[in-house]
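Crash report, auto-generated. Payload:
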Amino acid sequence: MSPLQSASSSIAPSLAYRALDVSTGSRQRTPLRFLRRLAAHPRMTVGATIIIVVSALALFAPWIVERPPDIQNVTYRLAPPSSEYWLGGDSYGRDIFSRLLYAGRVSLSVGLLSMILTVVIGVLVGALAGYYGGWIDRILMRLTEIVLVIPTFFLLILTVATFGRSIPLLILIIGVTSWPINARVVRGEIMRLRKYDFVVASRVVGGKDSWIVVRHLLPHLIPIVIASATIRVANNILIESGLSFLGLGVQPPTPTWGNMIAEGTSLMRQAWWLVGIPGATIFVVVLAFNLFGEGLRDFLDPRTRGRTR
Amino acid sequence: MKYWLGRILETIPLLIGVSLLTFAIFRMAPGDPVALVIDPTMVSEEDRQAVREALGLDEPLPVQYVSMMTGLFTGELRSFKSKQPTTEIVMDALPVTIIVGGAGLLIGLIVALPLGTLAARRPGGWVDRLVSLSMTASLAIPSFVLGLVLILLFTERWGMLPGSGIAPIGTIGFAGLESLPYLIMPVAVVAFSPASIFARYLRDALGSVLQDDYVRTARAKGLSETVVFSRHAVRNALLPVVSLLNSLIPITLGGSVVIEMLFGLPGLGRVTTQAALTRDYPVVITAVLFVAAIAVITNLVIDLVYGWVDPRVRVE
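Recovered output after restart:
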């Protein structure tokens, strides 16, 4: 289990109770108290703000930038940041600011969409293994272990080399290879929860397995799943940028933060901003998702509220 | 005895599972695997037939799997490009990956020891905050960005360290001490993340160990804080921290791909990436199997050592 996730599972028990609390007690909260609670969690608020700003910039890129990302202008080849080209020009004289925003569309959607896949598979495998136990659990956990033990980038390279490198394929590949940790977290939670009286009661009155899992168990997992999904986005953005940096991810001329860095590497001596700007962007965005995810976890968990880490 | 044997036997299905998954991914590819494996314009029909034979593609799937695995061990599985047995290629590249990765993990642990201890001695102090900060940063900085920053500073700006390769031009492979400057930056990049994770976990583990009765006893005996830490607390806190290696080894091996490409190190990650870019499929498969086997076996060794050092682990 990764260091990050093991930390999240240790606080999990109380998260489940919090889920109940959110559904019953939220109506009495006033906006002011809500804001005050947000202010008590600066990491979550800072993370969320950065995520919203970056997503908006990427989403509205066509209305924000002055020129499309693929327009080449020799005058601005390797131009330093200026009032005309805010973040400078790249080796083809393209506007780095424009490319950065368009790259954000690709990198963020790959990160988000692959996260959804990761979470769906992780919850499915974890819930099945945790609820049924026995041989289903053994088989699924062995599979989890197998995927986990193959170092991620090698598994990705193998898969990319086999299936190709289009953007939808990359989303699929990153999603399909990164679920094991989420599956383990969900499995642990379900195993703990299924012993509770309300589950036994539901079974006594004739509740079907699928009903018990979907209506009684999964709602308890929502906080922990959301928090870990946020951190997963950060990881998947890092994976995409790494693959694109290797030339095995999204192919130029479609910009992503990773392949912008790859393109700039050979010229970074003359123009550091070619790698510095996309590099800093990845750092800030991934940091924001991590902060938001960790902050959210604390926010939803009454035990860690107010505790400094 | 039961613990050791059980733990060793557990790795066998795991290794078989890894090889099956690798094989399955390769065979799940749409269309003729040979067309996928090799660029039709680059390779003759003879080569295609050789590939079919090497991979046994006319046979039923289980036979194919078995012949791929035997081909791997007998050296019949060959690279499309160099015609060298894939195991040779992989074995040639392996030392670089193991040296850089191993040195990175070791240095990470060595750096983390004093940092984690100091952080635990003064919670909220500046060392503690530094450890938390570097943990946060290490989770957000892609290793290639960190590496590029180092190259930009130490190679381009100050000219202190060579930024690419493993030895001076004209020498092949490791050149003893002369290779050392080439390894400093890659090892530093590898070490950054484990160092912060180890330090952070050591701090947390120390935090809980310090609540234990034997620490109170040691303090009550009048032992100095330094002795309490070095002789009692750190030793016990280190055990769970070292077990982090189980998850850090696959992560480090995976990270080696990007680092080797960036620094031009002739290791397994670079060989695999280049093979993937040229669709040299047998090399990719062999590399994945090797690297997964290394992860499985090192995990086994860690668990065995762990069971030897801490008898509680054996009773489960």
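Post-recovery validation: Chain A touches chain B through 48 residues (CB under 8 Å).
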